[in-house]
Amino acid sequence: MPSIRSRVDNGLLFFDFRFHGDRCREQTLLSDTPANRRKLEKVLDKIEAEIAAGTFVYANYFPNSKALARLERLAVQTDQIAVAPVGCDVHTADPIVIGDDTGSQTPTFSTFATQWFKEHEIEWRRSHIRSLRSTLDGRLIPHFGQKVVSSITKSDILAYRATLAKVKGRGDKEGLSPKRINEIIGTLCQIIDEAADRFEFTTPTTNIKRLRVRKVDVDPFSLQDVQSILATVRADYRNYFTVRFFTGMRTGEVHGLKWRYVDFERRLIRVRETFVLGEDEYTKTDGSQRDIQMSQPVVEALTRQYEVTGKLSDYVFCNLMGAPLDNKNFTDRIWYPLLRHLGMTERRPYQMRHTAATLWLASGEAPEWIARQLGHTSTEMLFRVYSRYVPNLTRQDGSAMERLLASRLATGKVLRMDGAHLQQVGDSNLFAEAGGSERATMPVPKPRGVAVGALERARTNWSRTSQDITLPERHAGEDPQPPPPGAMRTHVRRLNPLHA
Length: 500
Hints:
The chain has about 500 residues and is an alpha+beta fold. The chain has 5 domains: about 5-100, no CATH class; about 110-200, DNA polymerase, domain 1 (Orthogonal Bundle); about 225-395, hpI Integrase, Chain A (Orthogonal Bundle), CATH 1.10.443.10; about 405-445, no CATH class; about 450-470 and about 480-500, no CATH class. Helices cover about 45% and strands about 10% of the residues. Strands 1-2-3 form a 3-stranded antiparallel β-sheet, with helices on one face. Helix 8 (about 225-230) packs antiparallel against helix 9. The longest helix is centred in the middle third of the chain and has 22 residues, at about 180-200. The protein starts with a strand and ends in a 5-residue tail after the last helix.
C-alpha cells in the first residue's frame, strides 16, 4: 500500500509505492511534520491516480532518481512503462525535487544559486563577481547545496550564521568578522528571496537582522605629518603622494587615472575609471563619476609628472614599462617602509583619502563641495565620519561664537559691577560695531516668559518707581549694597502676572 514514511536516521520523509510491480522509494528533503506529510500525501494520491490511468511519467516527479536507469531499460524491454517525458534526457535533466508547497517543484540551492549568479553576473563589477563567487563556492553551496531551496528555514540560516562566528578567519583569527558574516548571510538571503518570488513560497529571511559591526575610527594624518611624508618620500613618488593627499582619490582611481582625464586648462581631474584586479573598469558607483578641482600643489605635481610619464604611458602614474602601479608592490616596498622610517603609526594607504577630507573641513570648505570632491552623493557620510576631527585641526570648538557674542551683544541696558556698586554703563547693540570701551560689558539677561514690552516697562519703572524696591539699611562707614537678588523678579511679577 502506498505511503509516506520517515527515515530512522535523519527523520526525512520519503515516498513508498509500487510501479508496475516494482517497489519504489523516493527521498525528499522535507522533515517529518504533520504539514509536510499532508502535502506529500496529496502528491502521492496524484501519483497513484496517474499510475491507475496509465499516464504516470516517473521523471516528472523524480528526475534525479537512481531508479530511472533501471526503469528506462525495463521500458525498452516491455515498451509499456513511461519513464521520461517526450524530448527529455533523464540523465541531463535539471535536478528538480519535491518542495514545501503542495504539488510544487523547486530546485536545490546549488542549482538555483548557479542560475541566479549567471543571470546577475552582467550587473556586477569584476571585483564583486570575484568576491561573490568565492562566497558561493567556499561557503554557501558546500553547506546548503543539496537542500531544496524552499526547505531552508529561518532556523537553518541562524544556525549557519552562528557557525560562521567559530570558523577560522583571516590571519588565523577564530571566527569571521561581523562584517564578513553579514556579507555571506546577505548573499544567502538574496538568493532565497529571489527563489521565494519565483516559486511562490514564503521566504524565511524576514526579520533576520544584520550583526552589529564595530565602528572603525579613521586615522588621518595631520598637516605636519603630510609635510614630513612629502619631504621624505622618494622623489619618484612625491607627485603621487601629493595627488593622493590633496584630492582624496581612491587607490583604484589614482592608479587608473589617465592623462586624457587631466584638464590643466580648467584645473580638473575627471574621475571616469578605476583600476581593479589588473583591468580598467567603471567606478565604484555612479556617484564616483566626478570632477575634482585641483589645488595649486596638485597642479604643480601633475605638471612635473607629465614630464616623466606624459609620453611614456596613457596612465599618469606607472612603472618603467608604462603599466599602472601595482598596489601590493606599492604598499610593501614604499608605503609601510616609509611610515616605519618616520616612526608613524602604520595605517592603510586609504587614510590618505581620509586626510584629504579632514584637511578640507579644517580649511572651512563647504561640506557639499567636499562631498562632491570625494564622490559622495550626500553629506551624511562626511559628517558621520569626519566632522569630529575638525575641532582638533582648527581649534574652532565654539570659540568663534564666543568671539561673536563678545563683540556684538544683545540689545538692552548694560549693567556693570564696579566693586560693590551696580552701575548702568550704557546700551549695547547686537548689530552695532564693537566699541572700544576699556572693559567688556554684559547685557541684562531677559527673564524667561516675559514679553519684550513687559521687559521694557520693567526697565522704565525701575527708574521711576524706586519705592517698589526696598534697599537694605546702610550704616555709616559701610559700602552701599546692591538690590537684593529677588527684588527685580518681584518687580517683574507685578508688571506681568503670567511670569509669577
